[in-house]
Amino acid sequence: MKLSLFGVGDAGTRLVDKLLQAEVETGRNFTDGNVLAFNTAAEAFGETDTLPEERQILIGDTHSAVNQYVEPDADGPDTDTASATSRDHSPGVAGDPELGAEVADDELPEIRRALDLVDDTEVDAAMVVAGFGGGTGCGVGSVLLEELKSIYEIPVYVLGALPAADESDERAHTAARAVRTFVPLADAVLPVDNDAWARSTQPLTEQYDEINEMVATRMLSLFAAGESDPATVSEMRIDPADVMRTLAVGGLSSIGHASIEVDTSDEGLLARLMQLLGLAEETPDTQTDAATIKRLVRSALNSKLTLPCDIESTDRVLVILSGPPSDISRKGFETGRYLLEEETGTVEVLAGDEPLPNASEITATVLFSNVTDVPRIDELQERAVAYQREQDADTAVIDTATSIEGATAVAADASTAAPDDESDHPFEFHGTEEQQENGDAHGGDTVSPDADASDESTATDTPDGDATDGSAADTSADSDTATEDGDATTAAATSSDEHE
Ligand SMILES: Nc1nc2c(ncn2[C@@H]2O[C@H](COP(=O)(O)OP(=O)(O)OP(=O)(O)O)[C@@H](O)[C@H]2O)c(=O)[nH]1
Ligand SMILES: [Mg+2]
Q: Hey, which of 39, 138, 278, 420 would disulfide with 471, CB 3.0 to 4.6 Å?
């Protein structure tokens, strides 16, 4: 399918650049050049290899609080209001999502001009790409997402990195707010858990490139499947509508991925040739073939996921098999699909293939859509709530009544469009259980001001997101049923712990 990409902040810029590189390397053209990157500091633009310069949009130069050209390690004294809390002295908006949202709001005309460079009629969907813990990623990202949702008819997805456990509480707090803002507004959110993918022996910043490459591989296998050689015929070819249908339930999605070498021995090649020429019995090795595909799909669902989660909490599943058409039999497909139905407990499993005649391996990419049992997100929220309490105790350095102006606008709009969507979503900022039992809705409010608008009534009565009062959230009601399934934990243990 065709996708436009909008990188925001440093992580967004690097990830989009990596996706474009992967496009060149794999010969899958899925953006048609419909890309942009927005940043409040110039450094990350200097690191790009593939992203065209005219598509790198620097914003914030009218703001005195924005350090556009500060070297990353030049941590000069910061006395402006944006750095009232313990900011890391990075360039741009220095980790401050409120400032990020303010800058984006002020520079909407400039942002809109840049958006004209992208043709939304040429693509099936748009995707905002950002580091959730970034002041730019979260702040500018929220405003951009809101803007794209208001001007586009096509789905708008969000892809982004979650901060690792050893990053600051402030980053975790920002990321939790980003999840809180992005999930109700975007058509689907695909977080990448930096913590799960980073090795503890090395600084995270040194591993970005590797993690981004992993992300690019999965994203292209999923979204760019079928964009390499439209001439190759396949009756099971993956259809963009299937990807969009799978993601249409919204919420958080996760991707699994695995490959196996195909039989390139003379014997294997001969068998395939005979089959192609119609000289062999009807797929004599179908049995082995189906078993192999089943094994492959199993390793994909047991692989380390982009966002480790309990796969039984998913609503919809999509599997894409990429490889030589002669190696992917219909029987193999059905076996793989059946396995996914069994393992995830959902019958909503779609499948398609990407015929790559010259490939030496078969790859299975599995998309789990609207997963609700995600320990990492719970952890982030807990950290964020604790951090917010500390801040409040320290005489409320962050004024929660006025914070994240842009995101407030986002939430207000979202609640107009889908009144109950937000309050029904399992990713509420719901404070601690203790607070909920006390009927204290404040935990929700403190973290994100948009809680004021629509969540106060539900923050207490739907603490676990099990609101099933229908309306906009039929789907999340479904997912709630899935999460209530008491034994939905075994698969998670395997899928998130097993490494590729
Ligand atoms: N996977 C991955 N994660 C990244 C990368 N760069 C940053 N991150 C993550 O994203 C978070 C936000 O960092 P940045 O992208 O630098 O922040 P920003 O959006 O530029 O916003 P500022 O705070 O204003 O600099 C970090 O805390 C990391 O968790 C990257 O290249 N790859
Ligand atoms: Mg930055």
A: 420
